[in-house]
Each structure stands twice: as C-alpha cells, then as structure tokens.
Amino acid sequence: MLKHVHTSSSSVRSNCSTPVHTPHHHHGTIRSLSLSREDTLSINSTMSFGSLSPDNTLSSRSSSYTSLNDSSLSMPSPVVKVPVKIYARCLRADIEYKTLPACNSTTTRQLITQLLSKFKMKHRDPNLFYLTMEVYVRRPGCTPVRSQLVLDDDACPAELQSCHPRGESRFFLQMRKGGLLKVYDSCLHTGSQYKSLLISSRTTTDELVQLLLTCSNVCNEPVTRFSIYEVNDRLGTERKLHPDDYPLMVTSHWDNDQQGHMRLVMHRNPDPVPMVRRKLPWAPKPRPSRKLPPTPDSPSRPPSVIHLLPKPPSDIASSFRSEMDTAMSTYDNYFYI
C-alpha cells in the first residue's frame, strides 16, 4: 500500500543539496534521491527569470531603442569623397589626366573650376569647357559598345561614376568655340590699358567682370561695383550693358565700319548717395506749447490735457452775425450777365 508524503517547495528552494525523500514502494523502504548541481542551477535560473515582470523588460528595451535612435539622429553623416579621373589634354598637350576628389553633390562646373585652378589657368573662361562621359555598354556575346554623353553644368560626375562598374566609364574635358574680346580696364590699374580674353558666347557681363577681377588679382571688390559700357568714340555716346547681357554677342553685331570706333570699357560704379529727407517749404512749423503756472486753488494738470479756448462774449458774436448777414445781402444784389 502506497504512503503519500508531502514535500514543500520551500525546502527545495532553500537547500537543494540535501537529500529529499520521495515515496517509493519497494520492500517497504524509502529511497533517497539527491538533486545534482545542474538541476540546482536550472531551478535558480528559472526562479530568477520568473522574478522579472514582462512590463519592466519591455520598457527597458524600448528605452534603449529610443536612445539609439536619438544618438543616430544627432550624429551628422560623414561626407564621402571619391577620386574622379578627368582626361584634360585640351588644356595642354603634356597633360593627360588629373584626379580630383569629389562627393556625390559636386557639380561639373565646380570640377572644371577646380581643374583650372590646379593648373593656374585663372585667365581661362570656365564657360569654354564642358565634361563628357564615355560609357562602355557590354552585351553577352557582342563587342562592347562605346557611347559618349555630354554632361550639364549641374550634373554630378561622382554619382554617375558610382552607377557603372569600375573601369567602364571615363570623363573627358572638352572645349567649346569662343571669341577674342578686348576690354579696357584702366579703372582697376592705372598702368593697364586693356585685356584680351578668350570667352564663350554664353558668358554674361557679370561673369566677364569677375574674370577681369581674377586676372587683375582684385579679390576684395564685389562684382556689383563695376559695369561694362559700349562706347562709341565717333558719336561720343556710351551704353551700359545689362548684367545678363552677353558681351561677345554684342560685339558680333558691330559692322565693319563700327569696328574702328566701338569698344568695351569697364567703369567703376559711383558710390550710392545717402538719401536725405527733404523738408517741404509749406509744412507748418510746430508751435511751442505754453505751460500755464498752476494756481494754488487748482492742482497742476498734466501736459497732455487739451485746454479749450473760452467762449467769446455775446456782443461780439452778435456783431459778427450782423456783418455776415450784410455781406450775404450785398452778394444777392449782384446781377450776372
């Protein structure tokens, strides 16, 4: 017959190394079983995990995730620059290529300006140059096809280069057709008479002024301080070019007879005159306010109180009305023809 023995769980948790007597019906004896260390560790780990509430665990995880997001937003993303190889044999015969660092937001115009400054060609007009991209298109079982693309001034070569495998795209510096332009710039230096520059037909007046300032090493003067004038020496007239005009297109409209007495002159703009407010002669002059001395009977009044004039006496008012009536009766006696 089996005997039921009740063992509390507190005794198991308090001392797991002590033998625990479990009932077993074998010749009326009770065998003792001892728990191993592995069982002790498993019980302890289960009890320790059960002591944590799921709400605390989720809140700690969410707070750590939020802190990671905040730290990622506060850290600025680094600007990665990649090398861009530009073949620039059109600048000089001894120049094969030049490698420039550029990021994905660097435009074609910025690369051309940086390339001219590297070779110390500040007298060259950046509008004379443009970039082309040579791309090889590979097809299975066919010879690679080469295509050439003309890039705009606001295109990003580094971003275009990342869209193609390495070695399958190249950039070439090309040159547009331009014209020789003579500009008299004695306003910059007294010893200088004129400068002859090779510019593009797309170059505006402001860009021409900036190019002249760069050639003369004038860096502290803004472009708005100077203007280009079209001067006619025969007639003694001059016309100021608009900042968005194209000076090379202006000179191309000159006739053969006008070539001898027409020229472009650079002038410094006069300093703006400060505006002075003009006084109107008919403006009434403000009359000084009289301040009456306070009487001992009445307290002193503030200066903002308006004093009313006393009423005229009755005899003066009656005489004024009689004069007005006489004048009106005389006016009615006139006859108009």
From TrEMBL:
Q: Where is the composition biased (Low complexity)?
A: 8-21, 58-76
Residue ranges spanning the membrane: these are none
Superkingdom per UniProt = Eukaryota
Region: Disordered, residue numbers:
1-34, 52-76, 270-312
The UniProt entry's GO biological process terms, in alphabetical order, are: positive regulation of epidermal growth factor receptor signaling pathway; positive regulation of fibroblast growth factor receptor signaling pathway; signal transduction
Cite the SMART domains for this sequence.
RA (SM00314)
Biased segments, Pro residues type: 283-302
Task: Tell me the InterPro entries matching this sequence.
Answer: RA_dom, Ubiquitin-like_domsf
Instruction: Please state what the protein is called.
Output: Uncharacterized protein
